[in-house]
Amino acid sequence: MFRFFENLIDPYAPYPEENTPPTRLWPFLLGYSEPFKKVFVAAAIMSVLVAAIEIGLIYYMGRVVDILSGDPAQVWQTYGTELILLALFIVLIRPVVQLADVLLLNNSILPNFGTLIRWRAHKHVLRQSVGWFENDFAGRIANRIMQTPPAAGEVVFQVFDAIAFALAYLIGAAVLLWVADLRLMIPLAIWFVLYAVLVRWTVKRVGPTSQASSDARSTVTGRVVDSYANIHSVKMFAHHDTELDYAKDAIEKTRRTFQAEMRLYTIMDAALVALNGLLIVGVVGWGIALWMQGLASTGVVAAATALTLRLNAMTGWIMWALTTFFRQLGVVAEGMETIAQPIDLVDRVTATPLCLQKGEIALESVSHHYGRGHGGLDAISLTIKPGEKIGLIGRSGAGKSTLVKLLLRFYEAEGGAIRIDGQDIRDVTQGSLRSHIGMVQQDSSLLHRSVRDNILYGRPEATTAEMVMAAKQAEAHDFILDLEDPEGRKGYDAHVGERGVKLSGGQRQRVALARVILKDAPILVLDEATSALDSEVEAAIQRTLYDMMAGKTVIAIAHRLSTIAQMDRILVLDQGKIVEEGTHDALLQKEGLYAQFWARQSGGFLNVEAAE
Questions:
Q1: Which pLDDT tens digit goes with each residue over 577-593?
Q2: Is residue 280 within 8 Å of residue 188, measured between CB atoms?
């Protein structure tokens, strides 16, 4: 039974992906609700049935009171069959209806709706560009991905568990009082108008305050995660108190926004108690007055009393459900600031897989300034022949990393074009482009998984033997065999910690090298690939790197000039332009910027801040 209801919806079913999701709240939620249409209709019907049964029971309890006011000897004889049927309905049919209602809500909708939103939201966010991630806190992004689905699930739950039930119940209550005595409708109608005014006043304020509170919580998460992710810097610079103050500002803002939210609920509760007192006195008092005048039976008064007491108990729940509904809508709206952002770098509709035959790279008047009008690259034109090894040097901010990011299409060039084997990279799929490029970065962070998983990330279908061979080539095999994590996993199964923090810088770099060696891409990008290695290991790795470079088109960025001295050609970048190019010897003979760098380096390192 559980499995049937749990499998009514597949949250991972294929769906048409949108590059520009709806930015308004209701279209956003309706888009995610599309697979649940039939289940939602069934849940609404069951909520109405449950409410109708509750109202029917209250009505019938009034009838029972009237029945019992007659001659006891005649009651069973006259009404025995009716009372038995009522009992069977209460014992057998009512639980089945209630169970179906609960199964639809708790087992079909709640687990699957939140899962569907989290899955699709995560899938959407993963499609965003590197630049998009660089403009936000990873902690805040993750927090919104995590808190939006349960909030949306709570919205749906309240619609069917509370709002639909409450509307059906109020309509049923009005009908019951109408049937009992039309005049009993008057105090109910007055109460309902006042109650609606209170609801409107509350929900009008709950949404904005809830969104502000949710946004404040996300800021706290972002700041706390930022401190934890950079704990080495925090400890190294003894900034414990600074980080506490940084977090305290956000925590205090969260407290103030939450206080404002709670004030609304306090006012709401106080007003609700007063309104419910008027409801009880109005309906029950009027019912007693009618009874005293002989215009209403004892059963009518009993049913009216039961109904108003039930409404008195329900109104707080209904109000809380409504405020919860709008409060969670505020959370969803805050989450939409991340989840509903359009994909800023997409494949063209006509994009095809990159067909790489030779590996020639051509930059044609490429400019990119990150939208600032300065920095980055300025009208760079360059052709790298198939199999050519290029070294890039320059001061910090000269444009070296920008060139690589544009080649990988982490950003869209603001001007010009980049072609690989004559194909504009904007006309090929991003996945196929990056599958042909292997890259080792200066800061090679690893996934918080096993060493095996990290190396196989380069080529998941590789065999264990191929993975081990890549590790040996990267001079990583021996230290990997000695690894053991706190859970007792050893060797290639040992986990490396978040961003690989359980390994030394040199060990992380060698695992990252093994990953790229295993990938065996025809275009190789090395961004300070050996910067974290000691001299002895670097010498061994250099041999491996030169073996890797055979037959590949290579772009190597280095501050340690000795690592690129043997490249076919060296490019010197300055202020976004290529100011010198040639072999190591030719550039030294020019006595230009490269020769100055070479003369000023200490131990083979480039003085990146040297003046011209």
A1: 999 999 988 998 988 88
A2: no
Two tokens, residue 524: 């190789």
| Residue 473, phi then psi, degrees to nearest 5 | -65, -30
Rounded CA-CA distance 283/312 in Å is 12
165 to each of 154, 261, 273, 317, 321, how far by Cα in Å? 15, 26, 21, 11, 11
Cα separation values, 104 from 54, 89, 164, 256, 371, Å? 19, 21, 14, 38, 50
Residue 466: which H helix or E strand, with range? helix 464-473
Q: Is the pLDDT of residue 228 over 60?
A: yes
Nearest to 331 by CA among 208, 163, 225: 208
Q: Is residue 267 very low, low, confident or very high in pLDDT (cuts 50, 70, 90)?
A: confident
Chain centroid to Cα 405, Å, comes to 25
349 Cβ neighbours under 8 A, 6+ residues apart:
none
How far apart CA 608 and CA 372 sit, in angstroms, is 23
- Which pLDDT score is estimated for 116? 92
Which of the pair, 67 or 406, is modelled with greater confidence? 406
Please give the mean pLDDT across all residues of the chain: 84
Q: Which of 153, 141, 154, 157 is nearest to 340 (CA)?
A: 141
- Tell me if 327 sits within 8 A of 262, measured CB to CB: no
Question: Mind listing the pLDDT tens digit for each residue in 129-141?
Answer: 888 888 877 778 8
The answer to whether the CB of 265 falls within 8 A of the CB of 178 is: no
